[in-house]
Design goal:
This protein is mainly alpha-helical and 77 residues long. It contains 1 helix and no strands.
């Protein structure tokens, strides 16, 4: 009877270990996928921000050039 109980216990431990390993592996795969998606998001966000900043700089440059020209025109008259 003890051998039977030990055998059942051993099989149960092995099944629990297998389920745990399977769940752990699935979680690792999901974590890797999440990390990959986050890196893609970061790259996309960085690209968008750089483009937006460049557009703002160009806009400010244009406004400042117009103001300088207007200032020069007023003082040259």
């Amino acid at each position: 009877m003890k051998d039977n109980v030990f055998g059942v216990e051993k099989n149960l431990k092995e099944k629990i270990r297998l389920y745990f390993d399977k769940d752990l592996e699935q979680t690792r795969v999901l974590l890797d996928e999440s990390k990959r998606k986050f890196k893609e998001y970061q790259l996309t966000l960085n690209s968008y921000m750089r483009e937006n900043v460049a557009e703002n700089i160009n806009y400010i440059d244009e406004v400042m050039k117009k103001r300088v020209k207007a200032f020069k025109d007023v003082h040259n008259e």
